[in-house]
Fold this sequence. Notes:
6 strands, alpha+beta, 43% helix, 23% strand, 2 domains, 4 helices
Amino acid sequence: xxxxxxxxxxxxxIQPINDRLDILAELFKxxxxxxxxxxxxxxxxANQWKIPEKFVRRVFNDTDYAIDVEFGTPPHTIKARRxxxxxxxxxxxxxxxxxxxVKSVQHPGTAPIPFFRTGINNAKxxxxxxxx
Length: 132
C-alpha cells in the first residue's frame, strides 16, 4: 500500500484557489467601477481590493466620502473651518457671476447613489458562473 502526501496535495491547491480569489476580487472591483459616478474620477479611482488574511479578499473604496455617495446625506450645515469664511460664485445668468462670502451654508443633502451595492449585485451572477 502506498502513502499519499496530503500536505503536498493541499499545497498544490493553495495557489489555484488564491488565483481564483484574485480574479473574483478584480471582477467585483471592475463591476463597481463601471457604475461608480464620475465627477473628477477620484471616487472611481479609489475602488480597490486587498488581501487582509489567507483566503480572503476585501473590495473597498478608500475615499472619506464614498459612504456619503452610497447612502446619501441628510440636510446639514457646512461651516468654514480653516478660514474665516466660505467663498463661492453665484451664476446670475447672461455670464454674470457674483462672489459670495459666508460663514456657513445650509446644504440640502444628497440622494443616495448605491454604486457599491449595484456593482456587487451585477458581479454576483458572473462570479457564480466562474465558480461552477
